[in-house]
Q: What sequence folds into this?
């Protein structure tokens, strides 16, 4: 009962299914992990839901359908399915549907395999709802949802000599309205916008978005922290948002030389970069997301959300320029209570309730957050738990 | 986990200079920290190549970092200095805090004028950690080693064994560097002791691994073996056997 669960704020697992299994690539003698890298929902067209899920090498289309009724009263079959002897049938009746306990079925509908040499990091469904792209470290492929034995390579940045490789693709997304436009981000902090109408292989970008480096912040880690871990278009497609290690940037598609807004997620980590390099945290890939909106109107892309360490996540309001830090943790928040804002003390004297940088737990990282497409409900994933929060106004 | 936050007291001219810097004790010089970062990066790359399917993005970023350091060191002219210092001293104790590296390059101008000073290092940890205003993650409880093959390797092995193994490989890297002018990262890597990768293939029995997989940017590693280093690596065989066992188990 959906309304009830909103007011009670409790959620139960709807369905669980195994999407991918570990596989062994005999040619390379490698095991392909079953770990899911990305999930994308398709727009709903009928009662069933469809989603694409991908591991490092294979994308699968899953159909998720509900069954809460079953037919009873067949004339030729018993309830358990056995056929009746027709000679024993003396009357006829119309079978009816009777309610049953909700059953959720997930069935694989398509398997898109063998198109990626490198690890898939992104999938994005096109606004035509017929095609989608999948991106790995060096290539992007275009698929048709109905066709599994063929895909088209639309971006290839693999150098002829792999020793010359200095940049990889980190994320890719289709424009929400223009079905021939997509963007992809790189490990050097650039975003390239490509138009598939220009050529079959989009090796030359139509636009290149890059912010010039700030010389006062230059260090050996500059490139690593500029690597973009996620890119998301705004609802109208006029803007896009990128996440790099320390910040979230909002770009106007009409302006390539710098972002229009920059939000610092955890600037206090800038002086810790060497330790973060040492323990590999500097390579963590955080995602970012916009607030939900049921209309593709720009003024509704208001809030940006992204994760950080110590089970903190951050939200930025583009209009008021206010930001908030919240924590997803059972110990510190009772269910159904309002989350208390957190503050990290970067330096100097620590105030009460502030947390010092040195006591942050870098194993507790929030890499994935999601906003309900229509309502103010968010899902936040910590290492072992999924938290669902909703706007207290509901 | 790599040893972190160890401050070295540098002798031979460094002390006086450090002493004048607002009385801060024993801050390693920029050159030392840069060297430490280079060592760390090379170790990461080597470990990365031991994995069957390393993360390509991470490898590329680390390789680019190494290239940057190398370019800067070439410009400095400090590249030649390393060779005289590294043998017998390239050790994990040099993974010191590198807060200076996180500052801008303008701050480094003054320090660089004094030139590199790689005196012998006192291994005793002398500086007062409480006064340590550097930005290392000093609280051990706060930062547990992430679930990461590199850190597992370090934890399982005894420190002495670790130093022996990787010291040899770092030494071998620098030996080869002595003989060439390091113009490109490719040169840097092309004559690196590939015995590790031979061991890898010996142990796993799959020759193709060193050539395939995603760490293609380092595929120069699989160049013809250096016969001199083979004898070294055979003696390390048991240690690396142990490491591979751990990697497979984890």
A:
């Amino acid at each position: 009962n959906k309304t009830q669960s909103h007011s009670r704020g409790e959620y139960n697992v709807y369905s669980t299914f195994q999407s991918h299994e570990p596989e062994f690539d005999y040619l390379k003698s490698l095991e392909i992990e079953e770990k899911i890298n990305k999930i994308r929902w398709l727009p709903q067209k009928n009662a069933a839901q469809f989603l694409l899920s991908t591991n490092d090498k294979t994308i699968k289309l899953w159909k998720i359908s509900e069954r809460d009724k079953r037919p009873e009263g067949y004339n030729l079959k018993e309830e358990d399915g056995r056929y009746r002897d027709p000679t024993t049938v003396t009357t006829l009746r119309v079978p009816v549907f009777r309610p049953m306990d909700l059953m959720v079925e997930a069935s694989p509908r398509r398997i898109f395999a063998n198109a990626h040499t490198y690890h898939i990091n992104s999938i994005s469904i096109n606004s035509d709802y017929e095609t989608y792209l999948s991106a790995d470290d060096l290539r992007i492929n275009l698929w048709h949802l109905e066709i599994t034995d063929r895909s088209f390579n639309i971006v290839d940045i693999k150098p002829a000599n792999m020793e010359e490789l200095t940049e990889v693709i980190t994320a890719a997304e289709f424009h929400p309205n223009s079905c021939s436009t997509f963007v992809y981000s790189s490990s050097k902090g650039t975003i390239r916008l490509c138009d598939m109408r220009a050529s079959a292989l989009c090796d030359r970008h139509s636009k290149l978005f890059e912010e010039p480096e700030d010389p006062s912040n230059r260090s050996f880690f500059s490139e690593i922290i500029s690597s973009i871990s996620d890119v998301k278009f705004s609802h109208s497609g006029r803007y896009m948002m990128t996440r790099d290690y320390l910040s979230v940037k909002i770009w106007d598609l009409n302006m390539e030389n710098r972002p229009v807004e920059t939000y610092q997620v955890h600037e206090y980590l800038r002086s810790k970069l060497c330790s973060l390099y040492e323990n590999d945290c500097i390579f963590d890939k955080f995602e970012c997301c916009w607030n939900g909106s049921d209309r593709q109107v720009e003024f509704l892309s208001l809030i940006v959300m992204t994760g950080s360490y110590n089970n903190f996540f951050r939200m930025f309001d583009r209009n008021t320029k206010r930001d908030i830090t919240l924590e997803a943790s059972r110990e510190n928040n009772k269910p159904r209570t309002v989350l208390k804002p957190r503050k990290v003390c970067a330096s100097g004297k620590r105030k009460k309730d502030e947390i010092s940088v040195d006591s942050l737990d870098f194993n507790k990282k929030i890499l994935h957050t999601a906003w309900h497409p229509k309502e103010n409900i968010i899902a936040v994933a910590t290492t072992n738990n999924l938290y669902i929060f909703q706007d207290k106004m509901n | 986990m790599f040893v972190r936050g160890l401050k070295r007291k540098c002798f031979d001219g460094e002390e006086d200079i450090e002493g004048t810097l607002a009385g801060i004790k024993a801050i390693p010089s920029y050159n030392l920290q840069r060297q430490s970062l280079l060592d760390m990066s090379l170790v990461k790359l080597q470990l990365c190549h031991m994995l069957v399917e390393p993360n390509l993005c991470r490898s590329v970023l680390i390789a680019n970092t190494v290239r940057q350091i190398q370019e800067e060191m070439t410009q400095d002219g400090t590249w030649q200095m390393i060779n005289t210092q590294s043998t017998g001293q390239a050790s994990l104790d040099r993974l010191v805090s590198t807060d200076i590296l996180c500052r801008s390059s303008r701050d480094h101008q003054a320090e660089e004028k004094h030139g590199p000073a790689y005196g012998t290092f006192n291994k005793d940890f002398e500086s007062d950690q409480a006064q340590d205003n550097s930005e290392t993650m000093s609280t051990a409880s706060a930062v547990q080693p992430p679930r990461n093959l590199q850190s597992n390797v370090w934890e399982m092995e005894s420190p002495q064994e670790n130093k022996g193994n990787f010291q040899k490989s770092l030494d071998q890297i620098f030996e080869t560097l002595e003989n060439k002018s390091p113009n490109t990262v490719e040169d840097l890597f092309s004559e690196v002791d590939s015995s590790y990768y031979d061991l890898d293939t010996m142990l796993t029995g799959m020759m193709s691994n060193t050539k395939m997989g995603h760490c293609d940017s380092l595929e120069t590693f699989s160049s013809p073996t250096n016969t001199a280093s083979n004898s070294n690596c055979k003696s390390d065989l048991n240690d690396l056997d142990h490491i591979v066992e751990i990697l497979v188990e984890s």
About this structure: The longest helix of chain A spans residues 2-8. Residues 1-6 of chain A have pLDDT under 50 and may be disordered. The two ends of chain A are 16 Å apart (CA to CA).
